[in-house]
Design brief:
It is elongated and about 75 Å long. The chain has a 3-stranded antiparallel beta sheet with strand order 1-2-3, covered by helices on one side. The chain folds into 2 domains: 84 residues, DNA polymerase, domain 1 (Orthogonal Bundle), CATH 1.10.150; 79 residues, no CATH class. It is built from 9 helices and 3 strands; from the N terminus they run ααααααααβββα. α7 packs antiparallel against α9. A hairpin with a 4-residue loop joins β2 and β3. Helices cover 54% and strands 7% of the residues. The protein is mainly alpha-helical. The chain starts with 6 loop residues before the first helix and ends in a 9-residue tail after the last helix.
Length: 195
């Protein structure tokens, strides 16, 4: 037994089909508008901007994250702006700002403990180089002993060649270059990753 689709829902589906929206997006949008409508026990075309605002606050109070709320609000925006042809309502529906996630930053002591815990000199040198020069993973795997381009006489400034960006990056810790040169003397074809 197939369920009867309301004319309003069919119009929304047709609007999404015309815009070549994927089946998954259509399903998500219809579900979002349906849940919005059920929350107030009214047809969605009878709901106002204040209802949308109240629904947003309800979603936040449920503990949903911005990444979950944004697609729901996009569906409701689409419904008001395209299906109901009320762009003045749609443009006022605010989208939550996603939280900025910062990477974990190690303290100086944590970095020292980590580096001291690496028993292999070659691996320790690799980690010191990555950390002190600020290499990206892709740069680190392409790094060779020939990457130390210039040792400025009388100073502790060294230049490391950034393999992917074709530019130089200054680095100060002379221990990196000393260990690099020591490893180079042990093996003339030292490569930290594929060339």
């Amino acid at each position: 037994m197939s369920q009867q689709i309301s004319a309003l829902r069919q119009r929304m589906i047709d609007d999404m089909t015309i815009r070549n929206m994927s089946v998954n997006t259509q399903r998500a949008y219809v579900s979002s508008v349906k849940n919005f409508s059920h929350h107030f026990c009214k047809s969605p075309d009878k709901l106002t901007f204040e209802h949308v605002r109240e629904y947003q606050l309800h979603l936040v109070s449920r503990g949903l994250q911005a990444a979950t709320i944004i697609p729901i609000m996009c569906a409701i925006r689409f419904f008001y702006g395209t299906t109901l042809k009320q762009p003045n309502v749609a443009e006022h529906i605010a989208l939550a700002r996603k939280a900025d996630t910062l990477p974990a930053i190690l303290t100086r002591d944590q970095v020292v403990r980590f580096l001291k815990a690496v028993p292999n000199l070659e691996m320790r040198t690799i980690f010191i180089t990555i950390y002190s020069v600020g290499l990206r993973v892709s740069e680190a795997v392409a790094l060779t002993a020939r990457a130390v381009l210039q040792v400025s006489p009388g100073s502790q400034l060294f230049w490391f060649w950034r393999a992917l960006a074709s530019e130089q990056r200054p680095s100060y810790p002379h221990i990196v270059v000393n260990q690099f040169m020591f490893l180079l003397s042990l093996s003339s074809d030292l490569v930290l990753g594929p060339v």
